[in-house]
Amino acid sequence: MLRLLDATGCSPEELGKMIGVSGMTLRRWLRKDAMVVPSVYVAAIRDTCYRLIAENRLDPGLPVVREILADAPSNEYQAAVQNLGLSKGFEVGEKVSQDRILGCLSQIGSSVEKQKKVKKDSKKVSSFKGLGEEWSERITLLWKVVRSKSLSSPDKLVAYGALFYLLTPIDFIPDHIPFFGMLDDFWVLGIASAYYAKKLEP
C-alpha cells in the first residue's frame, strides 16, 4: 500500500476516499509491520488503479500496479487483452502500435456472429452518441463504413470490430467504473475512425 501511495502522489486521505476508507484507517494500515489489506478492499484498490490510470495519474507499467492488476480475482484486464486479440503474454503497460490494434479489430470484425450482433444491437451502439459530439462523429463515420455499398466486405472489418468492442462489457478499464470505464472505448473508436478518415480521403 505504501508503494501505491508513493506511486500515485496522493495523500492518505485522498487515496483512502477513492478506496472507501478514511485517511486514518489507511495510515493505520501503513503503520503495521506486516501489513495485510482486508480482502474486502482488494477490488476497490484494483478499481482505483484503473481509475488513476485513466486519469493519467498512475503509470500502468509500475511493478506495484502490475502486481495489483495481476492479482485481480476477476482478471478483467487479461480478459480485455484476449477480447481485443492480443497475445496472452501481453503485459500491463506494454505499448501497442495502432497497426496492431487495427489488425486486432479486423480480426474481431471478421466474425460473422459479431457482425450480426453489431447490426442487431444498432440502437444500443447509436445510444453512445449521446456521450458527446466526438463520440457521435466517430460512431456515425463507422456506421457509414458498415453500410457503404462502395466498400468491400474486407474494408469494413475494422469498423465492425470497433463497434463490437463498444458493445462488449469486458475491456481495458471496466465499464462499471463511472465515466473512466468508457475512456478506452473512445480510444478504440478514435483509432478506427482515423483509419477510415485517411482511407476515405479523396
From TrEMBL:
<dbReference type="GO" id="GO:0012505">
    <property type="term" value="C:endomembrane system"/>
</dbReference>
<protein>
    <recommendedName>
        <fullName>DUF1232 domain-containing protein</fullName>
    </recommendedName>
</protein>
<dbReference type="InterPro" id="IPR010652">
    <property type="entry name" value="DUF1232"/>
</dbReference>
<dbReference type="Pfam" id="PF06803">
    <property type="entry name" value="DUF1232"/>
</dbReference>
<keyword id="KW-0472">Membrane</keyword>
<keyword id="KW-1133">Transmembrane helix</keyword>
<keyword id="KW-0812">Transmembrane</keyword>
<feature type="domain" description="DUF1232">
    <location>
        <begin position="156"/>
        <end position="189"/>
    </location>
</feature>
